[in-house]
User: Fold this.
Amino acid sequence: PSPASATPASFGWDWTATDRAVKAALSRGMKVLANPAYTPGWARPGTSSDKYPPANNADFATFVSAAVARYGPQGVKAWEIWNEPNVSSFWMPKPDAAAYVRLLRAGYDAVKAVDPQATVISAGVAHSGGSLDVAAADGSWVSPYRFVNQMYAAGAKGAFDALGLHPYAAFPYAPSADLSWNTFQQADDIYALMTSMGDGGLKIWATEAGYHTAQHPDGVTESQQAEYAVQYLDLWDDWAFTGPFFLYMPRDRGTDLAAPEENFGLLFRNDFTPKAAYGALATAIG
Assistant:
């Protein structure tokens, strides 16, 4: 069913897996950043991928309201609305800042109606482009800075409590590298843009960034991964405008040593043997 007035029961939502994950995290003293995404088939009729936005943002809001009502009382107080809407791989058929802002506003209003004290983070914008303010000729991606600017032009101010960013460095270089395509270093420019829009009091949350150790031109060694992961945290903490930093990801998801996406694990290889970053991060954070 699609009416905005539908109840959670009428949608047949199954919370089993999410219940288990939230309980496991909270029972270990961890905090949860919830990320309501993507779109089930019934809510995107005629489209093939769940990366298409909902046909009706009210359906998204209904789900978000139910999720906040379920997990807010358990201690989930941060909600990131969607993921990487500035690239076509996560917002199909191609990025549309105005459309994303409409979804963001729906999600923001839904969260705040249930839990006014919760923090709403805009979707982490993806590393993309060879310089600060650019976009693909075919519209398939928009650089983080330009997309955030487009969001403000579309009325995003007041629809988030913190700005989401995926400040991946320019692989395989360090976060400190002075390169035009280093999204990590662009965080300062993006904050200056926020300030010019009257949002200088908000923080930027790094909701995803890491390094992979694949045998690939963009890959780093495990010792470099450890060094750069610590550098991410140290440099991020040096800025006054930054919030939490989420390192991607705990464990290698596969065993193909040539595949970047299978080798982002910071703490463990796929077989749970520890990587160098395990000890380095334990020391840095501890």
Observations:
- Helices lie at 8-11, 16-27, 57-71, 97-114, 144-153, 183-196, 222-238, 276-285.
- The CA atoms of residues 122 and 197 lie 16 Å apart.
- Confidence is low (pLDDT under 50) at residues 1-9.
